Amino acid sequence: MQVEGKSQKLLRIHRADNVLIVVRSVKPGDREVIDGHDVVFTQEIAIGHKVAARDIHAREKVYKCGVPIGSAKEKVPAGGHIHLHNLKSDYIATYTLDKDHVFVK
Amino acid sequence: MSSSSEAPALQGFLRADGRKGIRNCIVVAYLVECAHHVAREIAGSFRGQPVHLIGFGGCYPNAYADRMMNKLCTHPNVGGALLLSLGCESFNRHRLAENIAKTGRPVATVVIQQTGGTKKSISAGKTWIEQALQEIAEVPRAPLRVNELVVGTVCGGSDATSGVSANPAVGRAFDMLVKQGATAIFEETGEMIGLEDVMSARAVTPELGQQLKSSVEKAAYYYKEMGHASFAPGNAEGGLTTIEEKSIGAYCKSGDSPISGLIKPGDVPHKGGLYLLDVVPDGEPRFGFPNINDNAEIAELIACGSHVILFTTGRGSVVGSAISPVIKICANPETYERMSDDMDINAGKILQLEASVDEVGEEIYDKVLDVASGMQSCSESLGHQEFVLTYKAFEPIGPACLPV
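YS: structure for the whole thing
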């Protein structure tokens, strides 16, 4: 494992990855340099979540631990939060609970 | 820190079949839900003593549940068994009692209808256990080498930290155990979807590789039929997005050793190595989800001989198990802070850049040896002895599954 740049919040697990893992919660206003972009976060991102390690285009495979974990549904800029809204499984839809605690795809 | 080349001397409980346990417990096993209360009352009156409650709730016969109960009641950690029958259920209590008796273990069956109801059955059961506890105290001890240990792993309450801290660390501990000749078992083929080719390439023979791949394809089909991947809302809240991403977590617990075989619930590997336990039923989906919760998987790992279970969690599971101790490896440093009483190992240190995956792997290996030598794991000392067994259907494994 190697740390991306001097970041103490984002961890790159594998060199083939196009995502970084949040290892300390990111707060709105936090700044990180990601792939040469000066990224200012506008939302809180909890630990364990992923952000784009570089610009990712729509339908591009997303890699974590050197393994594909699905495809981007839309373009994600470097530093963008990657989750259910912009990443889909290439195998089976992910179900989860929405704000009203109803199962959604 | 123990050096991996010098295995410390452990003392096992020697069973008549030559297998050795790291615990010596009596199981109280109900053979239908109707006998559950009586069994629980009996087991509950021995709080603090090695008396564990297990059972099968179904009234209709099931070959899988029958095999599981037979394997669990003759597990090396079990010294004796009390069977609780209502009297009219279809479970074959006679054969189970015979099989246990054949292994030299004390066994008795209380049939509630014949014994005269609840009170008399509880009283009869308690009297038998008091005497059985004295009997199993005489079980001979024998040196237990690391290569005789069987260690299973499972993850539960996963979040995205599981796959980047605790699970790779368990993978390192598995590598150390396999190198010492121990048996290491990983499972959850339903959580390896998307990684079947990567895994197959590690099989000791191409034929086994094909079997490994087929087992994941079977799981993918099964979950599609269920309309729901093995993915809970807490997983997504914790940052996991897809089943493939969760798969990395489950997969990397296996470490880097070659894969020696594919087994199904109740198959006990006869030599050391790394094994994949196929927990997804064969044939068309019949009884619902392959495993209804983490404890269903733990029971299957134990039925395959696991002396101890390595349980990784990010969100913070608290469960333990009847029969074999569960060691908790907490992946998420914030969860560890909040729930440290329940956690044996803080793998969250990896995320805080305070320890390497290798260092935590060594810590887990040492913890396995400590627990094997009698030290209680956190869940064990807190009294967790969860157990669940449901209906499933399996075909026996073929010759390609155990090539060596």
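YS: worth flagging: Chain B has a mean pLDDT of 93.
IM: good catch. Also Chain B has two domains: 25-138, 146-401.
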